[in-house]
Amino acid sequence: MEADKEEDYSSIPLSERAVHKVWKARLNAYEEMTKQFSRSASESDSCFKPFLSDPALYKKIVTDSNVAALEAGITSLVACLQYGGANACQRLRGTLVTPLAEKGLASVRAGTKQKTVEALLYFVELDSPDPVVDELLPILSNKLPKLVAGTAMALREIITNFGTKTVNPKAIVKVLPKLFAHTDKNVRAEATNIAVELYKWMADPLKSVLLPDLKPVQQKDLEEAFEAVKGVQPKQQRFLLSQAAAADAEPDDDSAQEDQPVDSYDLVDAVDVTSKIPSNFFENMASVKWKERKEAVDELFQLANVAKIADSDFAEITRVLGKCIVKDANVAVVMVAANCVESLAKGLRHNFAKYKPNVFTSLLERSKEKKASVIEALGNALDAVFESTTFSDVLEDILEFIKHKNPQVKEQVALFLVRCLRTVRTIPKQAEIKHVCEAATTLLADTAKPVRAAGADVLGTVMKMIGERAMTPYIDGLDDIRKTMVKESFDAATVRAKPEKAAPPVPAPASSKPSSKPTGPPRARPSASSVTKRAPSGTPPTSSSSSTSRSEPSSASHSSRLAPPGSRTSRIGTTQTSSLRKEPVPSSPRAAVTSTRAAASSTPPPRGTGRGLTGVSLPSSSSSSTSHSNNSSLLAAEKAELSELRRSREEWQSSIATLRQQVEALQGENAKLSQAVSELQLNNQQLIEDHTRDVLSVKAKETQLARTRSELNGAKTQISGLQRELENVRSANPQLTHASRDDPVKDVRQASNTPLARRKSTAHVTEEEKENGLASSRITNGSTFASARTSSAFSPISTSAAEESLSSGTTSAGDSVESWRRAAEVTSQLKARIEAMKARQIRR
């Protein structure tokens, strides 16, 4: 140990000491690295190069096995990032973030954890937070609880220092339910800390995303924790390198820290709804049974009731919902259909605007319902549809339905208009305000009290937006009672609209621009040339010009006293005035301005005009009259040009309004055509299904016919076999050929006497019985009656009787006549059956 203490490692190069097998050598190297980094002259200093050129070397440093050396190594990394800047961050981040977090955040030493978090914050500050967060999130699935808790703590520090404006909280919010379900209490505690920190920045949108996935006990605890920090306004403590200049320029007051609120819509993933809709949805929606329609809209509502919906083709679905809302007689189905529209509009947001014509007028028309729950569902659906569009898009339909003959519809449409005016963020155009006020004034004269109250609310809300003075023309003709109603609504109304930004001022004509040369201080004795130059400018007098004009009369009087009699000042002024009056009148205001300026600049002052003993030029009365005439002509020209511009603007506005109406008409036609196309597609699909069914039916018939033909051929084959066997029997006993016609009993007796005939007859009868029974069963296609008849005809009893009669005829010639008679009857029956089978085959 003494040898280790006395050994000097300073002679070893720094990069070799950093990976030395002795931990003290490595510790010494890390401390020296920290000193060199802190003393570096710039970010490109040579002390950084060995470590930035080989990031794997620093990976070994931040994963040192010795706890003391590990803390020193992470401290050197913090110094490297602090003084090495963005270049060091970009070179080391991809290699070091994961091993640094896994080793440093799981350490038992508080200093090591603190330095690790500081290094991670520098990785965020010098470039971007997304790569660091993406590297840390997979570590939350590690099996080591203390590493998961440390990583959660690091994420909380990143949010605390940089805020949700810089760090996207979507990925962090998604993993919070998993942390709350962890078995380790320290991990759950860190998850609570992250949720509270996010609530400071995001407020209520976090609740709607996070709380539904937690247990009731955890929800209650989080609600209490959120209440404790409610109203806290967090501030960003550290800024990215790209934000540093902006952060220095911002003031320290709270107004500079105002950010746009975080929307929960941006924190969730879109869900594909169209792929999950049941195949029989449209069939059930067209059913005559209200329960089937109710089941269909219930299934759709369960699918669409999500925070964010992926954009797809909802044209046919919204068309069916709109038709259901306006025509369905069951209010329960209507209410759920309205809830479906609300969910689709909230989930699609601005993507739902193209489906607005399919449902909006249906919702307004159905507002005649008196049941409170249905009215509430319709109102929520209208509000959601309005959020996806603009005020101008819905105003036309509102103004149309506000004239409805049903007082209930008028009241609900007016209340919807009030909600639109209170939530819109920009004050509507002047023409739209005029239409709204005129419609609301009409409602004030309605016979129904709720309608009058709704009209007063509309006027009061508009007054809150544009002010009492601008509202005077619209309420000036109302009586005192109605004015009082409007004033009460005005006091209670709250609006969010702000006036549109004023357009940049139109530049004044060239004649009204002041002279580019700065006007100097007033002189006691201005020259005549300066007076001539300032006269036609047409600018309002400033303080300097007014003082100059006040000093001019005194100098003029002084010069007139010094001037010799018979001076030419008055005559020259008269000549100039008359020459100006004789000029032709310009054809346009702009030409008048140009000609006047040219005349003023091209007419030089007469030499020697108004010169006294001192040789100072004196102003003449003619020059002042000339300036007055020029000013009047300039003003007239400007007024003419202004009126012409106003007229052009009105023409453009009228043409724009016409084009807008044409566009709206084309959009309506497009919606109708889309609806017609959808109906044609449905009809085409139905025709295809009918054709498919017909084809299948024809194929079934053909299959049945082919099977029947094959059975017929089999029966024919069996008949021919029977005939051949009969011929064989006759050929075996020639005596049967001649005697069979006269005495069939004798024919059978003689044929049966031979041994071969006895064997054949027995086999033939059995086989014939089986084949005839099967053939008759197949030909009749399973007919019960035919099967019964066949089985009775070819029963084993009759066969055995025939065999007994034949055998008895062959064994004993002296049997009774009754036995031969039975044998003859069996033979005749067999022949009759064969003939009957042939006849049936011929008929078929």
Structure, explained:
This protein is mainly α. Among the domains are: 1-127, Leucine-rich Repeat Variant; 148-247 and 262-268, Leucine-rich Repeat Variant, CATH 1.25.10; 274-492, Leucine-rich Repeat Variant; 721-843. 70% of the residues lie in helices and 0% in strands. Mean pLDDT is 78; it is low at 251-258, 502-629, 744-749 and 759-814.
Secondary structure elements and their pairing?
Blueprint: H1 2-6, H2 14-17, H3 23-38, H4 49-52, H5 55-61, H6 67-104, H7 110-125, H8 129-136, H9 145-166, H10 170-180, H11 185-202, H12 204-210, H13 216-228, H14 244-249, H15 281-285, H16 290-304, H17 315-327, H18 331-348, H19 356-365, H20 372-387, H21 391-401, H22 407-423, H23 430-444, H24 449-466, H25 468-475, H26 480-492, H27 528-534, H28 543-562, H29 569-581, H30 589-602, H31 621-732, H32 735-739, H33 744-753, H34 755-779, H35 784-793, H36 796-811, H37 817-843
Task: State the low-pLDDT regions, or none.
Answer: 251-258, 502-629, 744-749, 759-814
Question: Roughly how much helix do the residues carry, as a percent range?
Answer: over 70%
Number of strands: 0
Largest sheet: none
**Tally of DSSP helical segments:** 37
Could you please say which CATH topology of the domain at 274-492 applies here?
Leucine-rich Repeat Variant
State the CATH superfamily name of the domain at 274-492.
Leucine-rich Repeat Variant
Rough outline: flat
Which class do the helix and strand fractions yield?
A: mainly alpha
Task: Bin the strand percentage.
Answer: under 5%
Span of the ends, CA to CA: 117 Å
Mean pLDDT: 78
CATH architecture annotation name of the domain at 274-492:
Alpha Horseshoe
Could you tell me the radius of gyration in angstroms?
Answer: 53 Å
What is the CATH class designation of the domain at 274-492? Mainly Alpha
